[in-house]
TrEMBL record:
This is Amphi-Trp domain-containing protein. Pfam families: Amphi-Trp. Residues 4-76 form the Amphi-Trp domain. InterPro entries: Amphi-Trp_dom. It comes from Micromonospora peucetia. Residues 72-105 are annotated as: Disordered.
């Protein structure tokens, strides 16, 4: 389930500033802020993935993805039907692909 997505064309300098802003939020508050008033708490340990693709002779994309199990979800363990096993929910946050262009600004 997507919570938020933003795709736009920006300069390389603006992209670098946005990445620094995200890094600052993670370091100082442990949260990511998105949209007009959205926020999500990021766990102390996350799974990180960096993917670099060449999609044609002159088109490239970079995807940065990190995911984690919400501590609140892990505490509220629900048994699965008939197995007694715990079910955990994984939260994913993906940075917008700067190679994609959109008119939403």
């Amino acid at each position: 389930m997507d919570i938020y997505e933003d795709a736009r064309t920006v300069s390389r300098a603006d992209l670098a500033a946005w990445l620094r802003q995200l890094a600052g939020q993670l370091e100082t508050t442990g949260h990511l802020f998105y949209g007009a008033a959205g926020t999500i708490a990021v766990a102390d340990q996350v799974r990180c993935e960096l993917e670099v693709e060449q999609e044609g002779t002159d088109e490239f994309s970079v995807e940065i993805e990190f995911s984690w199990v919400s501590p609140r979800t892990a505490e509220a363990v629900e048994p699965s039907a008939g197995t007694g096993a715990a079910r955990e929910t994984e939260t994913k946050t993906e940075a917008p692909d700067p190679a994609e262009s959109s008119t939403a600004e």
